[in-house]
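Appendix B: complex inputs.
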Amino acid sequence: MQIAQDCVALIDYTLTNDAGDVIDSSQGGEPLAYLHGHQNIIPGLEKALAGKTAGDSLKVSIAPADGYGDKNPSLVEQVPRHMFSGVDNIEVGMQFHAQTGGGMQVITVSAVDGDTITVDGNHPLAGETLHFDVTVKEVRAASQEELDHGHVHGVGGHHH
Ligand code: ZN
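Resulting structure:
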């Protein structure tokens, strides 16, 4: 069975950046299960997996436009330290949930300079070219319930 619209695919993957650092991987855990054609994964990876079958391996590099998008400079802001009341030690890399004009968003502290904290609301992988090394473990038809929910149930998917 080939990966196509409304299929469930289970994949093992390793994601590296341009420097070759491993950013994310399914190694040592469950494979990732996703519902093809339902925006469960980034568009570039979904496109590369279409037509593949169990046992296929592929390496694919995905530009930001087909990944998490380009970095949006307007999402980088400097805010005063007192905005983080209750947090004793603010460090680069800390993540917070913040209510913004665009709704609830994860922001990452990207710089700390005295009482000025720089926060970045971009996805941590925005602007990055993503290098995936993927092996397809299994392809199956989705159940009606999975199609209704728009995501996979069971191994590698949602448990609810
Ligand atoms: Zn569900």
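The chain has two helices and nine strands.
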